[in-house]
Design goal:
By secondary structure, this protein is of the alpha/beta class. It has one domain: Class I glutamine amidotransferase (GATase) domain (Rossmann fold, 3-Layer(aba) Sandwich). The chain is about 35% helix and about 25% strand. The longest helix has about 35 residues. It is globular.
């Protein structure tokens, strides 16, 4: 199978559970290190899927690499290439395809319960996911849905948390975090967490039962969504091989 191409935007915001999952399924992957100056490939013929990770910058900054990624997203969407977005990655996909991204009244940071939306797409993607389910959320901005996308779940502080269309699924949350990755984030970027609003948990609350919470999130939510996405990757790859034969 062709590899999954993962876009990293800052050197401390790594794929975490995503690459653990792909390696467990023997799915090849490669990393485009935007933080190291890697160019954004503008082809989708050499991949089985694209994944876009988070970052502390805004998609509205429109750095050259963000514009390049959004051009690639539009190309991938036109061919129904499977895409995955986490945090800023979900905002890049949304904006590239006609949605808007804007600051929220207050940040949303912490372990929060999210509730499934009642629509056929959400029921398909989240069929094995408990309702509600606790996940790790850390964002300053929110998106509106791109055309044709269906919402998947909501939190008490942000109604549009995730969406899916075709072979693509994206969430403003961080279901990819592991205990080690989140500890790194708290060390590097913990100054962002000031509990000035009900939507922002203090660091000591976020660290509470951290290992157990990450494992529980992966089992109940992350891996279930990745399994659904992987099924679409396999189907897409098989279709591409058939058309090339």
């Amino acid at each position: 199978m062709k590899p999954i191409r993962i876009f990293r935007h800052e050197d401390w915001i790594n794929p975490g559970r995503l690459t653990q999952f792909l390696e467990a399924q023997t799915i090849p992957w490669e990393l485009v290190r935007i933080d190291q100056g890697d160019p954004v490939p503008q082809t989708v013929d050499d991949v089985a899927g694209l994944a876009f990770l988070g970052g502390t910058m805004s998609v509205n900054d429109e750095f050259p690499w963000q514009l390049d990624e959004m051009a690639l997203i539009r190309k991938a969407a036109a061919q129904d290439v499977p895409m995955l977005g986490h945090c800023m990655g979900s905002q890049l996909i949304a904006k590239a395809l006609g949605g808007a991204v804007a600051p929220m009244p207050d940040k949303e940071i912490g372990w929060w319960q999210v509730t499934k939306c009642d629509n056929p797409v959400a029921r398909e993607w989240l069929a094995e996911t408990p309702d509600p389910v606790e996940i790790l959320i850390w964002h300053h901005e929110a998106f509106t849905l791109p055309a044709g996308a269906a919402p998947l779940y909501s939190s008490p502080f942000c109604a549009e948390q995730a969406y899916a269309f075709g072979n693509t699924v994206a969430t403003v949350a961080h279901p990819e975090v592991t205990e080690e990755l989140l500890e790194c984030w708290l060390d590097v970027y913990g100054y962002d967490i000031e509990p000035t609003a009900p939507s922002i948990q203090p660091i000591e609350k976020i660290r509470e039962d951290l290992a157990e919470r990450c494992v529980a999130m992966h089992a109940a939510f992350t891996d279930r969504v990745y399994e659904k996405w992987l099924a679409r990757i396999v189907a897409y790859a098989q279709a591409q091989e058939h058309s090339a034969a």
